[in-house]
User: Which sequence fits this backbone?
């Protein structure tokens, strides 16, 4: 599956990488939607939250309200991300290698 930085560079910016992790800064404006891409296991740290929708390759969707300051773990996944809210979302993803 596609690397998020390659297919959605306007949303995902690498800010750090070594042999164990890659850290991506994620900034989404209202209405932003990424193409299908993949992440390995990842820790998400929300700076500024909002409502997002994840769509899996099989079409299943999950909506989430990301709270400011929340920290979450997600298993490796392929998905489309869509920002459903009205304010900017700002998240750091720590992808585990």
Assistant:
């Amino acid at each position: 599956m596609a690397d998020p930085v390659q297919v959605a560079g306007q949303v995902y910016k690498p800010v750090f990488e070594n042999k164990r992790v890659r850290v991506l800064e994620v900034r989404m404006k209202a209405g932003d939607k990424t193409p299908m891409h993949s992440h390995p296991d990842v820790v998400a740290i929300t700076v500024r939250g909002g409502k997002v929708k994840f769509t899996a390759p099989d079409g299943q969707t999950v909506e989430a309200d990301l709270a400011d300051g929340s920290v979450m773990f997600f298993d490796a996944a392929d998905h489309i991300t869509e920002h459903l809210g009205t304010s900017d979302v700002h998240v750091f993803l720590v992808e585990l290698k």
